[in-house]
Design brief:
CATH architecture: Beta Barrel
Structural class: mainly beta
Mean pLDDT: 92
Organism: Chryseotalea sanaruensis
Number of domains: 1
Order of helices and strands: HEEEEEEEEEEEEEEEEEEEEEEE
Protein name: Porin
Radius of gyration: 22 Å
Distance between the termini: 33 Å
Number of strands: 23
CATH superfamily: Porin
Helix content: under 10%
Keywords: Signal
């Protein structure tokens, strides 16, 4: 299986190299006035994964026990269309799909429809109050404008690591649509301070397409009542200010900016979780309160050589109510689990979300321009760690990713090879105990223009 993975990867690298040498990536932009300040623009993003995964113990694929899997999938395929129509009016839309592999459309009854995967991620309108200043933008619609952290609203095409730390999108596909919510927001820059204030109308858990979990003494999202969500995010820019074209936040500027930020954010929603001890009258409602604080650095090291350093370190405090824990496996290549393991822990899943605290850090170094020869691009190696102390886990959970980006043409065309080291847990009485580790190797090809 690994030989197949390496052979396909080598073939893909050859094809990409020829393509990159023979064509230039051009911007798809239509000017609406002479100086181009009013425009319409379209972009396209596609991330293809080829992956070998050591399955968590007890994993099954369509009823068959498996020790490992190999799959090919589309992690993300997106089309963006947006524009500045006047000095004050901006709109943004994004359409696409996520996590499309051989199990696309699969459900608990081994049926489904693989053709119904694409949807609108964002549809928003925004008004810039002052023409020549970024003091205040007011927007509304379906949007990823969030509180909490920069990785709660990431620009996927510009990230350092192969994938974002999804745990920072804390309610993803529970009360939102792939981290997007129907919201009204204010954002902008006051001096050196970036700010975002968001009022969201979250979706009920009953419409997320999954069977609702049983009400128990561990918190889950409430199926009764509806309450608005309040969010905020703030960043102090010590050096260069960051772009405000869209609500998305850049992963790395590849040495084109000198950014040092202190960041903090929150998400709160009342009575959005519930627990029950033994009888109906014991039902207790809990508020969601999520907090984060972080430092972000992204700056050139040697401008002549084109080298740069990117680093992030953040602390996250999550309160979803007593005992909340949710497994998640990105584009999970498995369907079920047997043995002393929680439901949903099959394949590549790990306890990604929970009540408790987590730390996340990443560091990457952009090597010199044309490291691989003129026109062949350069390398961007990285390492990241998510370390979580969730209330339900008896042991601290550490998930480590290490890899390297081959930037064929910066973020427009790049190959990423990533290895992930993750733990797996077994139930012992009321405890979840770490029993070992598993690994995953992914080769990703990104086209983004």
């Amino acid at each position: 299986m690994r030989k197949i993975f390496l052979l396909i990867g080598a073939s893909l690298i050859s094809i990409i190299h020829v393509t990159a040498q023979s064509a230039e990536v051009l911007e798809m932009k239509l000017k609406l006035n002479e100086d181009g300040s009013h425009y319409l623009k379209a972009t396209f993003l596609n991330q293809v994964w080829m992956r070998f995964d050591q399955s968590n113990p007890g994993t099954q694929v369509l009823g068959e026990p498996v020790d490992n899997t190999f799959d090919i999938g589309l992690r993300r395929t997106r089309i963006q269309f947006f524009g500045q129509l006047t000095d004050h009016v901006f709109f943004y839309t994004q359409f696409g799909q996520n996590n499309f592999n051989y199990l696309a459309g699969q459900n608990a009854t081994n049926s489904g429809n693989r053709k119904f995967q694409a949807f609108f991620h964002d549809v928003l309108g925004e008004y810039k109050v002052w023409k020549d200043k970024d003091l205040l933008f007011v927007g509304s619609g379906l949007t990823i404008a969030n509180g909490l952290s920069r990785f709660s609203q990431p620009s996927i095409g510009t990230i350092v690591t192969m994938d974002v730390p999804v745990f920072a999108q804390a309610t993803v596909d529970q009360t939102d649509e792939f981290s997007r919510k129907l919201s009204v927001y204010m954002r902008g820059q006051l001096g050196k301070v970036d700010y975002r204030l968001v009022l969201s109308d979250p979706f009920p858990i009953t419409s997320n397409g999954q069977p609702a979990p049983a009400l128990s003494n561990n918190a889950t999202f409430s199926q009764r009542g509806h309450h608005k969500q309040y969010q905020g995010f703030f960043a102090y820019n010590f050096f260069d200010k960051e772009s405000h074209t869209t609500p998305y936040m850049t992963g790395t500027y590849l040495g084109k900016k000198r950014v040092l930020n202190l960041e903090a954010g929150f998400i709160t929603q009342k009575k959005s979780m519930w627990t029950r001890e033994t009888v109906v009258s014991d039902t207790v409602y809990h508020n969601v309160n999520l907090l984060s604080a972080a430092i972000y650095y992204d700056a050139p090291v040697n401008k002549d050589k084109g080298t740069a350093l990117s680093a992030y370190a953040g602390y996250f405090d999550y309160d979803f109510g007593k005992g909340y824990l949710r497994y998640n496996g990105i584009m999970n290549p498995a369907t079920s689990i047997t043995g002393p393991h929680l439901s949903g822990s099959q394949g590549n899943a790990f306890p990604m979300f929970g009540t408790g605290s987590a730390m996340y850090a990443q560091v990457a170094f952009l090597m010199k321009k044309d490291l691989l020869g003129e026109g062949n691009g350069t390398l961007l190696p990285y390492v990241s760690i998510m370390s979580a102390d969730w209330e339900r886990l008896l042991d601290r959970m550490n998930v480590i990713d290490a890899g390297v980006n081959w930037l064929i043409k910066e973020h427009n065309a790049k190959l990423t090879l990533n290895y992930q080291h993750r733990p797996f847990f077994e139930t012992q009485g009321n405890d979840l105990v770490k029993k070992g580790n598993r690994g995953q190797v992914v080769l990703q090809y990104q086209v983004f223009f």
